[in-house]
Amino acid sequence: TIKKLQVSGSSQVLSSAYNNRGQCHYLQVEFYKAIDDYTDSLKFDPGNSTALYNRAQVKYRLNFFSEARQDILKALEISPDFGDAKSCLQAIDYAVSNKTTTDQA
Q1: pLDDT at position 101 over 90
Q2: Distance between CA atoms of 92 and 27, rounded to whole angstroms?
Q3: What is the pTM of this model?
Q4: What's the half-sphere exposure (Cβ side, CA atoms, 13 Å) at 3?
Q5: What is the mean pLDDT of residues 57-86?
Q6: Which helix H or strand E contains 95, and what residues bound it?
Q7: Are residues 79 and 48 in contact, defined by beta-carbon separation less than 8 angstroms?
Q8: Closest to 68 measured CA to CA, from 77, 80, 57
Q9: What is the pLDDT of residues 8-61, one digit of tens each?
């Protein structure tokens, strides 16, 4: 279990374990549990661009666009060539501009 890893594991291993569990929660549509695990992953490795991307994806699905954008920008700062993160940023920006247009109508 992850608690056992906390006693003996390296920070990178723990970060990966929380990220992987977060992905399982995401696939089960347990979005808030997924966010918690991605956040725990980042506590062990703040430079984990994949965990930032994954957390942003969930926040995007929950319409937390501002928070999702912050995570994606951090992921791209760490990994500038992260193609999926670039695509996600475009989707977030499109959703925000579309939401603003819809809200004004």
Answers
A1: no
A2: 20
A3: 0.86
A4: 0
A5: 97
A6: helix 83-104
A7: no
A8: 57
A9: 568 899 999 999 999 999 999 999 999 999 999 999 999 999 999 999 999 999
Distances (CA, A) of 37 to 11, 17, 25, 31, 42: 14, 9, 9, 10, 9
What's the distance, CA 78 to chain centroid? 13
DSSP state string for 31-91: HHHHHHHHHHHHHH-TT-HHHHHHHHHHHHHTT-HHHHHHHHHHHHHH-TT-HHHHHHHHH
Tally the C-alpha atoms within 13 A of residue 34's C-alpha that lie toward its C-beta: 22
CA–CA distances in Å: residue 50 to residues 8, 79, 96, 103: 23, 9, 23, 32
Asked whether 49 and 75 are in contact (CB, 8 A), the reply is yes
